[in-house]
Amino acid sequence: MRKLITSILAATTVLLSAGFAHAIDGTLTLYTSQPNDDAQKTIDAFKEKYPDVDISFVRDGTTKIMAKLRAELQAGATPADVLLIADSVTMESLAADDLLMAHEGADISAYASGIHDEEKMWFATKLITTGIVYNTAAPVTPKSWNDLLGEAAKGQVAMPSPLTSGAALIHTATLINNLDAGWGYYENLAANGAQASGGNGGVLKAVAGGEKLYGMVVDFLPIREKAKGAPVDFVFPEEGVSAISEPAAILAGTKNPEAAKAFIDFLVSKEGQELAASQGYMPAHPDVAAPEGFPALNDIKIMSFDAAAALNSAESDKAKFAEIFSQ
């Protein structure tokens, strides 16, 4: 009897120990470029599933948040455990410097190949495309990227600069590698009086205010503003669109890898993707419906993009763009 009781107690201890070993708790710090409201909603939804995780976030634009992160790492340590930022090129730079931790157990079987990093260093959380916004007073409704080179668009095109916008840098790399004209397309845009400066918000403001009639811009901005009554509409050009994926990743130095993995798992789960859709973004998950105002994911032609190649050409692409637009 004594031996039986001892065996039962030992087995119970093992089971309890295993349970505690897999408990998701502790603290977690997110560095993100998401808007504050979206970041807070993301954290609130995660905490509903993992109430024992005390998660906080630091928010800024991707360029600034990366400068902060790298300065902290250079100084010896960062409080950041997970990242959720604008673009995969930045993630590739972190992976190249061995600053990310792979999450090999992440279930991404529902997703199309190529959406997430093949080595599971970073994971797409949504698809934000760049297409054409136009003022509803414009004389021509654009259907193609080449429509921005026409007479109606002469001096009437605004676009973000890849010198200041990560999404614009990816958009530039995508177009030059997918359009037959390559850099010639941007040379023709410059010759037609296109204006390149700042970020996507400035483009939307210029087009909605009538200062410009056309613009290159990320999809959710004009789609949201159109729903509010702004005189704008958005086009997914027939040649296709570029896309950023707002990837998430785990920092190699995280002190809470289990909670960090749980956060990634939540973001790529169907529930996490439904949250992204409810915030007005195109979900990356194929089984989650697009928000109102968006076409179905299968109806959007997304141009090919190689994040690693774009990282290698980023500085030369910026220099070439600056040369064309005299920046």
UniProtKB/TrEMBL annotation:
<keyword id="KW-0574">Periplasm</keyword>
<feature type="signal peptide">
    <location>
        <begin position="1"/>
        <end position="23"/>
    </location>
</feature>
<dbReference type="Pfam" id="PF13416">
    <property type="entry name" value="SBP_bac_8"/>
</dbReference>
<dbReference type="InterPro" id="IPR006059">
    <property type="entry name" value="SBP"/>
</dbReference>
<keyword id="KW-0732">Signal</keyword>
<dbReference type="InterPro" id="IPR026045">
    <property type="entry name" value="Ferric-bd"/>
</dbReference>
<protein>
    <submittedName>
        <fullName>ABC transporter substrate-binding protein</fullName>
    </submittedName>
</protein>
